[in-house]
Amino acid sequence: MEGVGSRRPTLDALGLEPEGGLCRLPHGFLDAVKWIICMPICILLFFTIPDCRRKRFERWYLVTFFTSIIWIMLFSYVMVWMVALIGYTLHVPDTIMGITFLAAGTSVPDAMASLIVARQGLGDMAVSNSIGSNVFDILLGLALPWFVKTTMVSYGTRVKINSRGLLYASILLFATVFATILSIHFNKWKLDKRVGILLFAFYSVFLTLAILVEFNVFAYVNAPMCRNL
Question: DSSP letters of 159-183?
Fold first, then answer.
């Protein structure tokens, strides 16, 4: 009789088995170009984050977890700064940059995690991860920095939201979540190509309507950006 531990998926089955060394050049021109571009970051992460997939660092998983969180914080800060600077240069509102480029950039880790578990047939976990990550971002990702700002950095102050269009974007967000659950329900709780195409369509509609709202197409909800004096 097999034990409980024998049914656990291995790293190889999950596609997480470490590949060769850091200096291993991949095959293919595009893969080689990507490898060269990413090499500085890979070297930095290689020497600062223990790879707990390897035998020598198996017990270092907590160090791996917390150092990864620190690097995610640093990368997120740089990404937000760059997106805000690009939006200011091109005179694009911060809300539009947030729901497009910034949202896509921060959702890549969630998408990869959902992809890994979906390939293992764990559809429940993939859907729960996507919905749970959004709930976490809204209830903690917004609450924590606002709490720190109004209680520790500037006690007694308030965080002002400049765009009234976020109300419509939030309504669209809840509508897409509701439509996602309905789509999976009518597909007999199975994830297949039809559900994927339908979710892509939902996202396109959401993104189009949100951008039109932020550009004051339907109503005046977003004040124009300030220019240099």
Answer: PPP-BTHHHHHHHHHHHHHHHHHHH
